[in-house]
Design brief:
This protein has two helices and six strands. The protein is α/β, with parallel strands linked by helices. It has one domain: Double Stranded RNA Binding Domain. Strands 1, 2, 3, 4, 5 and 6 form a six-stranded mixed sheet that branches. A hairpin with a 5-residue loop joins strand 5 and strand 6. The longest helix is centred in the C-terminal third of the chain and has 21 residues.
Length: 152
């Protein structure tokens, strides 16, 4: 994958006009979090559909493929906590997700957009890791969609 961003130029930005369908493939998972690939895949499918108007398709029928790798998942970094045990303040925690993502035009075979090392954080209260993970995934999806929409 290419760290610089895009390899394909567009006249008005965004995806080429022939890209109407997309397949989001399961991401390779180099972390110890088994739920992360499915959550990321579902969030990307939903975001690409609602924000870019792309329809889901099978890998064989899609105009474009989104694929990638989850390279890092760090949880339980303390953000804030109360030093006074009598206070009812809940500890805040942070997690970080890092991914490599590539969007490939299956019609032309060209990489439309690629980025390595996309990182996003999420914050959560004790025992609320799923909420923090959702925040981080939503930020990653936003970065991917903005990358696909941008003019290079």
């Amino acid at each position: 994958m290419v760290a610089s961003g895009c390899l394909y130029g567009f006249a008005g930005g965004g995806l080429p006009p022939h890209v109407k369908t997309v397949a989001v493939l399961p991401f390779e998972n180099e972390t110890g979090s088994p739920e992360l690939p499915l959550e990321l895949q579902e969030a990307l499918q939903s975001g690409l559909k609602s924000r870019l108007g792309l329809r889901d398709a099978t890998e064989a029928r899609a105009n474009a493929l989104v694929r990638g790798k989850i390279t890092r998942y760090v949880v339980d970094e303390p953000v804030a906590f109360s030093a006074n045990p009598s206070q009812a303040t809940t500890a805040r925690r942070r997690l970080r997700v890092q991914v490599d993502v590539e969007i490939v035009d299956q019609v032309t075979g060209k990489t439309l957009w690629a980025r390595t090392g996309i990182q996003a954080d999420g914050e959560y209260n004790d025992r609320g890791e799923a909420l923090g993970r959702k925040q981080a995934i939503d930020r990653i999806v936003n970065d991917v969609i903005e990358g696909a929409q941008s003019q290079w």
